[in-house]
Amino acid sequence: MISCQGASCITTFADFLCSKIAPALRHAIYEKTALDIARDMKVKIPDFRGNRSTLETCMLKYLAEEENFENFKHYLNFPGEFLNNYIKTKTYCLGENRRLEMFLRESLTRYYENIQSAVFASTRVVKDRKDRNDKISLWLDEFCRALGDMLSLPRSDLKGIEHQEITDIEFLNNAMTEALSPLIDDLRKEFPHTILAEQFAGCQSMCPFCGAVCTNTMPNHDGDHRVVFHRPQVLTGYRWHKTDNLIIDICSSCVSSDIYFMTGEYRWFQYKRYRDAGHPCSTWNIPPDPSMQAYWKWFVSYFRTQLEQYYNGKFHGRGEIPASWKTVTKQNALTELEKY
Ligand SMILES: [Zn+2]
Ligand SMILES: [Zn+2]
């Protein structure tokens, strides 16, 4: 409960109200701006024009061009974070600061005008109601109603100020206008890029065997997780049991074999019956498919030494890299990616 008197009371009231508006406004504006930028990116940058698989392919091309093992590690271990950075880099190419500033300013202006007109409208309704003593309560009712769906500002959050004895409603109008201005400036300072990444991220679930990220565009989607191509399991560091042999097999081949795998709880299951292993295996659909992208054949051959070092294993024994992989060039890998 706030208590005060006269003009300072009105200022306190306006400040309180703005402090309640701020989080809702911040959320609405960031979301709106993120949507605007996402739409812009879809039009202007080919990487974002297609679906989640297209974006994945673009990231793989980018990684191959850079040929930097550290980047690959980041991509394989923290795909969500990598995507965030990728989006940041790409939007930066668009002249990010200028566009971000432009979209932010546009939605700020729109919301600012709407809030102001809600202030004016409520003042107009309440001003001449000589019959009412609880003018502030009435003003707040009107204000929340006028904001409507634009901002979620529950009337119940404003109970602390509804008993204020403010009689000078015109003055309140001005105080509100004044209190809103710094709020708008604050919003410009820190735009969260993660909210932009959410527009493209889709499902973030990773294959429990090879780490490939589900290509469904919806987070929390119905049905099983899937990917078009699984990858050699060495990409998540798997080795054959009790050996230093890195696993170059792909999950979609394993599921049609008689091979077993061990879960984190040291329980053995046949790949054929991988769903029996429970969560997260049971949430994936991995149909048998022996085809492996040339990309990963190139990657494993090219970064062989780094992979052995990083995962503390060897490409020998059951993990021997087939001679045919070694002849796959980066260009082969990229040309094949173009087809999808
Ligand atoms: Zn997989
Ligand atoms: Zn999924």
TrEMBL record:
This is Interferon-induced very large GTPase 1. It comes from Anser brachyrhynchus (Pink-footed goose). The lineage of its organism: Eukaryota, Metazoa, Chordata, Craniata, Vertebrata.
